[in-house]
Amino acid sequence: SVRELPPETESIWKYWNGYSAGGVFTAIVITKEFYVTGGHDFMEAITLWGWFGCAAALAADWYAWWHTLLVQEAYDRDYFPLLQKVQKLDAKLEAINSKPNEKRLMSQIQKYREMIAEKVLSKTLGNRLGRIVESTVAKLDAKVNEEATARKDAETQWKRSALQQSVEYFDDENVRREFMKEALAQFCSGDTAKLSNSAVTVAFQTDAFKEQYQSNYNNAKQNYLSEQRAKGSLSPVFMDESERAALSKSAPEKAEAYEEKIRQWASGRNAVNAQIPSFA
Q1: For residues 120 and 189, which has the higher predicted lDDT (pLDDT)?
Q2: What is the pLDDT of residues 40-65, one digit of tens each?
Q3: Angle, CA of 115, 118 and 119, to the nearest 5°
Q4: With a threshold of 0.70, does the pTM exceed it?
Q5: What percent of the chain stands above pLDDT 70?
Q6: SS3 sequence, the chain?
Q7: Cα(221)–Cα(153) distance, rounded to whole angstroms?
Q8: CA dist., res. 224 & res. 231, Å (int)
């Protein structure tokens, strides 16, 4: 390549031309007294020297250019592949240098993943716990409403049965006779039975109906409770403390049930090292 050649050096020879070369030649010839205008041998010598000089100049110039081009081609064959390799290596080094620190980046990504996983896990557990709490509260509300409804229905049934039995009791002729006898005894006691011009109201004081109603109510209640206990379907709302304590599980039984649930869950999954809560 021409651009790869060294710069041209300063030299006096590049200022010579044909006129200067002819003048020098003429001066040399005249000085040596060899210049004869009609000399046959001299003209032949000039012709011979001219053709020989042209041939030698062409040969020397051809050899110079051939050698230059050959050396340049050999240089290019060695230099350009090496240059291409260097350029590829520079491109690789530039790509490597432009890349971030993969180890530090992966460490940061791992920390970010762990942080996201913890947040997702916390949110998932919070949502699941919220759903469990909501479901538990709904079940407790349903159980409370069920027990309240069962108590209300049972008390309504007891009241109707007690009222019906009380009415049937006082429909008896003997009961009425005793009732009237007691009423007349109260009416005749003291001065309440004397005649006077003022209108006096005498209140009949008796607890016969109340006592009979309360007795029938208690009997209906006891019959209902006995019947439900015999069937084994007595609602906890009607149980006393001893019966409720007998039905509830003890702390070791609750811990055993909890461990059984954990074993069932871990049988189809990974082993779980769960801490047993306090059931005291």
Answers
A1: 120
A2: 566 677 777 778 878 888 888 888 88
A3: 85
A4: no
A5: 76
A6: CHHHCCCCCCCHHHHCCHHHHHHHHHHHHHHHCCCCCCCHHHHHHHHHHHHHHHHHHHHHHHHHHHHHHHHHHHHHHHHHHHHHHHHHHHHHHHHHHHCCCHHHHHHHHHHHHHHHHHHHHHHHHHHHHHHHHHHHHHHHHHHHHHHHHHHHHHHHHHHHHHHHHHHHHHCCHHHHHHHHHHHHHHHHCCCCCCCCCCCCCCCCCCCHHHHHHHHHHHHHHHHHHHHHHHHCCCCHHHCCHHHHHHHCCCHHHHHHHHHHHHHHHHHCCCCCCCCCCCCC
A7: 12
A8: 11
CA 180 – CA 173 distance, rounded (Å): 11
* Residue keyed to tokens 């060695």: 78
Question: How many whole angstroms separate alpha carbon 280 and alpha carbon 276?
Answer: 12
Q: What angle do CA 274, 277, 280 make, to 5 degrees?
A: 155
Q: How many Å apart are CA 127 and CA 8, to the nearest integer?
A: 86
pLDDT at 82 over 80: yes
d(CA 99, CA 134): 51
CB 237 within 8 A of CB 147: yes
Stretch 207-215: mean pLDDT: 79
**What token pair was written down for 136?**
């538990």
Summarize pLDDT for 139-195 with one digit per residue, the tens: 989 988 888 888 888 888 888 888 888 888 777 778 777 777 777 776 666 555 555
CA distance 161 to 155: 10
Length of the chain: 280
